[in-house]
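Let's study my pick:
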Amino acid sequence: MRIHSRGVHYKDLNEKVHRAVARDEEEIFLDDVNGQRYIGGGLKGNIHITVNGVPGNDLASFMDGPTIIVNENAQDGVGNTMNAGKVVIRGDAGDIIGYAMRGGKIFIGGNVGYRVGIHMKSFKEKLPVIIIGGGAGDFLGEYMAGGLLVVLGLHQGNKHPFVGNYMGTGMHGGTIYVRGDVRDYQIGREVGIRRPTRQDLADLREFLEEFCGDLGLDLEKVMSKKFTKLIPYSSRPYGKLYAY
């Protein structure tokens, strides 16, 4: 079904979406979206939402299963505490994408802001994944406890760096991959720089194949450049500060 969103208050828009889901609608198109918050928040099940326009903060927050496609940009807090499902953003996105994300995938074709992936975590079969086609601001993966973060820098040309400083500050789990070089001054002291193994690249390729398929990119071109792997030195970087 199609919902026209121009001038509709975010509460009213979300009520329309939830009523459509209650009627067992599985395909929903939201047209003329302009900053309405919380779209897809808390939704469960096999639901596909296409957003035409720019959704506001906390898109897909606490979402548990649906797929959301955004054909333009998105604002802050996409996937806040998301548990399962997928979000594909064809343009740029704002700050704190994937905050405390516990599962699912967020694919962003363009650039993102600051503190993306902060407090991401994984548990048993849950593995949250964020792949960024462009560049990222400071504090990427701050306090990251699990999951996978990938920054590709596809639109940056030869610009370096296309990832900000303080990457992985407080990181104690998970993995970050950057398509290109990472300098020591860019990372938190809790993070180690490694060269990916063949198995690492094979695993990464599976995620990038899906990413490229969703965003119409050439997988071989994406994989043609070397990747840098960032991992935490310790699972308890602050143990000596707060425990005796």
